[in-house]
Amino acid sequence: MSKQVPVVKYNTSYPSIEDLRNKARRKIPKFAFEYLDGGCNEDVNLYKNTAEIREVELAPYYLSKHKGSSLQTELFGHVYDAPFGIAPVGLQGLIWPNSPQILAKAAKDHNIPFILSTVTTADIETISQITEGRAWYQLYHPAEDAVRDDILKRLEAAQYPVLVLLSDVPSFGFRPRDIRNGLAMPPRMTLKNILQIMTRPEWALKTLKYGTPNFATLKPYMPKGLNMKQLGLFMNRTFAGRLNADKIAPIRDKWKGKIVVKGIATEADTEMCMKLGVDGIIVSNHGGRQLDAGQSAIKSMHPIIDRYKGKIKIMMDSGLRSGPDVARVMASGADFTFMGRSFMYSVAALGDEGGNHVIAMLKTQLQQVMEQVCCEQIYDLPKHIIK
Ligand SMILES: Cc1cc2nc3c(=O)[nH]c(=O)nc-3n(C[C@H](O)[C@H](O)[C@H](O)COP(=O)(O)O)c2cc1C
Q1: Is 66 a catalytic residue?
Q2: What's the CA-to-centroid distance between 179 and ligand 1, angstroms?
Q3: How would residue 162 be classed by pLDDT, with cut points 50, 70 and 90?
Q4: Beta strand pairing status for 136-139 and 115-117?
Q5: CA angle at residue 323 from 385 to 20, to 5 degrees?
Q6: Whole-angstrom Cα distance, residue 111 to residue 90?
Q7: Ligand 1 centroid distance, CA of 284 (Å)
Q8: Which of 100, 143, 206, 387 has the fewest CB atoms within 10 Å around its CB?
């Protein structure tokens, strides 16, 4: 693989995800920030995710021969320019207007994967065009087979190479902030929410420019003219489905591209994925938004790596907030990583500039770690882990 030149064009006023998070808090209405930022219940798993990644330590081999480090990582037949991608996030346009388009463009420019959520505010066809057919798609399994088949047909026509099936939302997460804020789609215009919007004029003007966010991909399946309550009922009816072997098997038969199951946390579910012919898993706990009593993602990944490394692609998300975090997770044996909030904080903070900024910054941080520990290839990071 050729060595790549590190991209260093990031905004030096915001050199960390925490800087971007703080700026985002000041730029967008409170209900939107809390939707993005929060976990579930008492946020125990949200904090454990990052804290336990940071227990991983790397050894630097300063006296070894070193010709330079490359971030390039091969996955499913494509060589990406970094071992991280953009995880699917629902309702992105509510957090920052046009944000899925901004992030998809930045992902394409930086040659990293962007995963489009079923329930976000940009549609399959628009994102395929922006990424020139390189985006992945995350499917919330629809209750009706006809909706599933139509989505698969659209994905095939738009040349999506990878289909991601979500497994970790058999029930809606219990998220106290969203409950308090009455979060709904479109946002409920309570006096409290209107006051929050009035203090965030740039967000309000951009929302006027791009229009009220809606579930763009799902429009063809929605009856027209639903009020808010009817929309909620429609979403519950259409997507209240647990993923299981009976739902994965027919998709495996129909879908010619790669299949990844996201939300895996146990060896038993990994075994099931292997049996069903799934190509990869994303070990994830949805960024601590579903099961507060669960393990951190990195902790649940360790036994899966021990038993299944090399047999199925093992990716991980939940808790990564920096280049060193990506290095820690890759050193722990992951084949690839994803982040959700980190990218959204940046777009909420910096708007159009936010996509390029955060990717360039994370690449620069990761490049520095690679040079520092004297590691030439991403695949060699596990040699640096201190057990
Ligand atoms: C606001 C928000 C919305 C999300 N919506 C989805 C979604 O629609 N589909 C999905 O598969 N995961 C969704 N996730 C989970 C992310 O894909 C990812 O697993 C998680 O953000 C990773 O944790 P991190 O934010 O700590 O990086 C969402 C996460 C956040 C923060």
Answers
A1: no
A2: 18
A3: very high
A4: parallel
A5: 145
A6: 22
A7: 9
A8: 387
